[in-house]
Design a protein that fits this description.
Length: 610
């Protein structure tokens, strides 16, 4: 969603800020703004639309050449998409500017208080209220004013603040929304909400914790809490490669990440399977082995693509480890007064580790006594930190807004957790060895599917004029059908519904008309015959069937319009293959329809508001 980059150092801030902002574009935004202090004066510019618009607006303007500044990409929550509502926001007295990710929940009461004190507001945002509050409390020390203001606010924030009257100071703080400080050489600092904006300059960072306030000057920095108690955060290494966040030869990050999936799986499983002994090695779970052995139920909670992976995880936990398991939207779980029995394990699945609903569900589960496990990609993210134990996906930064390699990583990690728990209960070493061998073969099988990308492109292009699609699957591949439909919606803006193939007869069958595309996941497995019957039901009503089928199944080609083949695979891991042609279809459909695949309208990569 929103992105923050701030700089204090010896160089000209502008190119560093704008480059950082461009690296955060993938997170989704609708407007951008920048403020720079040059020769003791503050200059500010904001623009609706792309970072490029903002760049143009300040191009060649010498007043933006200072070495202290901050900038922001905004994804509207409070107030419409206008230049005035874009960040930075400034107070009306001292030249204080603020960029902010998150939501100040008590902004309306604070606004009223500030209006009574004579402040006038130019925007409808909660952030402007925070800027004014800092201004109201300012007595010549911006760090103190920020601490005082943060003692008054409720809600979530990551903020960076500068003040015209203190041209050598940058203050940043966080609660509930990520923020880190990159420490460059020679007293150079970059504050950002995402390591992608820092890594080109330094890998040494401090990850701020909730209620941390950092004051950066040209001589160094110090950290306190909001009550001014000194803290000593530790300096860490950012685990990001510049190569991972650059396009290379690919036209879009989404395509790059689809093609990275064989290596994503290799990274996810690497060193975690002792195939000779039938043992799963998950260091992140080892201290809770006992609790996991006696788990009475598992609740997997997530949003979006991560929820689809969680659904597959549920099937695996029940099928392989025989543990009663459920999945639920995190947003629903937290508000429905869930019953958490003794020995319940809650698994929060999240690429970013920052999804507000998933984080809130996690807090709820912990409060009710559950053991909380994270299946997260971003190392050190809020969910990773708040869980008792966890398994990282290890798929590297995912930039494409439509999640692809993280999905594969989530299913891979959940499979490993299932094998691990199954081994502690009913699964023999031999059975586990068989499953692990299947897993080990997945990367090469994905590579094989990727070789057929040109064919998948051709098939997709036959249907791109159609505005309504169905995605149908059964068992392990019902969630895959949901994921296929979600991918198509997200980037090609085609209406698509995913559902269990058997459910189609209970209503959606009425939608089928001449030529309507219906994508069936019809790989060989327990439900193959049933899926074949469902295919006939669509065909006899004029629908066009595109099947994802197992290599060698030539029979199916006689009953459907198009086939996309995947290698033979055991059922539990089949979604890791079946999803790949669906990802490619969505990608090629979006490109053919002329959409910006990596910047889909209205979407944010990480949804940090409820
Ligand atoms: C957003 C993204 C989706 C993602 C979902 C959950 O909606 O656009 O791609 O699946 O959030 O995100 P998480 O980071 O928790 O996996």
């Amino acid at each position: 969603m929103c992105g923050i980059v701030a700089y204090l150092g010896k160089k000209t801030a502008r190119p560093i800020l704008l480059e950082g902002l461009k690296r955060l574009e993938y997170r989704g935004y609708d407007s951008a703004g920048i403020a720079i202090v040059t020769d003791g004066k503050l200059y500010l510019e904001r623009r609706v639309g792309r970072v490029g618009n903002l760049e143009e607006a300040i191009d060649g303007r010498k007043e933006f050449d200072g070495s202290l500044g901050l900038c922001h990409t905004r994804w509207a929550t409070h107030g419409g998409v206008t230049d005035f509502n874009a960040h930075p926001h400034r107070d009306d007295r001292h030249g204080i500017v603020v960029v902010h990710n998150g939501i100040i929940e008590n902004y309306s009461a604070l606004k009223q208080y500030l209006q009574e004190k004579g402040h006038t507001f130019a925007s409808q945002t909660d952030t402007e209220v925070l800027a004014m509050l800092i201004g109201e409390l300012y007595e010549g020390d911006i760090e103190k004013a920020v601490q005082a203001a943060l003692r008054e606010v409720t809600g979530a924030y990551a903020i960076a603040v500068i003040c015209e009257k203190e041209p050598n100071v940058l203050v940043a703080a966080r609660k509930g929304s990520p923020l880190m400080v990159g420490i460059g050489s020679d007293n150079e600092y970059i504050v950002a909400s995402d390591g992608a904006a820092i890594i080109a300059h330094t890998a040494r960072v401090i990850m701020l914790d909730d209620y941390n306030v950092v004051k950066i000057t040209r001589d160094g920095f110090h950290t306190t809490d909001i009550h001014n108690t000194p803290l000593s955060p530790k300096v860490q290494q950012l685990e990001i490669d510049l190569e991972q966040i650059e396009l290379g030869a690919f036209p879009h990050f989404m395509l790059k990440e689809i093609f990275e999936q064989p290596s994503s799986v290799r990274a996810c499983i690497g060193g975690r399977m002792n195939i000779r002994e039938g043992k799963v090695v998950l260091g992140g779970l080892s201290s809770f082995a006992k609790e996991l052995t006696k788990a009475s139920q598992v609740i997997l909670t997530a949003q979006g693509t991560a929820l689809h992976a969680a659904m597959i995880g549920r099937y695996m936990l029940e099928d392989l480890a025989k543990i009663p398991s459920h999945t639920e939207y995190a947003s629903e779980f937290r508000y429905r007064n869930p019953v958490i029995e003794e020995n319940t394990v809650v698994v929060a699945v999240s690429q970013s580790g920052e999804t507000a609903d998933t984080l809130a569900a996690l807090y709820e589960a912990k409060e009710r006594g559950a053991l909380a496990i994270g299946v997260v990609n971003v190392v050190g993210s809020s969910i990773a930190r708040e869980t008792d134990a966890g398994v990282y996906l290890r798929v590297g930064p995912e930039i494409g807004v439509a999640s692809t390699k993280a999905f594969i990583g989530q299913v891979g990690a959940l499979a490993l957790i299932s094998f691990y728990m199954a081994r502690k209960r009913y699964m023999s070493a031999d059975q586990c060895i068989d499953m692990m061998k299947e897993m080990e073969a997945i990367p090469a099988k994905i590579e094989k599917i990727l070789e057929s990308a040109p064919r998948i492109k051709k098939i997709t292009e036959k249907y791109i004029e159609r505005e309504n699609w169905l995605f149908l699957g059964r068992g392990y591949n019902y969630p895959t059908a949901l994921e296929g439909a979600l991918k198509l919606k997200e980037i090609s803006y085609i209406h698509a519904e995913g559902m269990p193939a058997a459910e189609m007869k209970h209503g959606p069958i009425a939608l089928i008309n001449e030529g309507m595309p219906a994508v069936f996941i019809a790989n060989r497995g327990r439900q193959y015959e049933k899926v074949m019957s469902n295919i006939q039901e669509v065909r006899s009503r004029g629908g066009h069937v595109i099947a994802v089928a197992t290599e060698g199944d030539t029979e199916i080609a006689k009953h459907v319009q198009d086939v996309m083949y995947i290698p033979d695979v055991c059922e539990p891991l089949s979604p890791m293959l079946a999803v790949v042609p669906l990802q490619l279809m969505a990608y090629y459909a979006a490109v053919a329809r002329g959409h910006d695949v990596d910047k889909p309208r209205n979407l944010a990569k990480s949804v940090t508001v409820e």
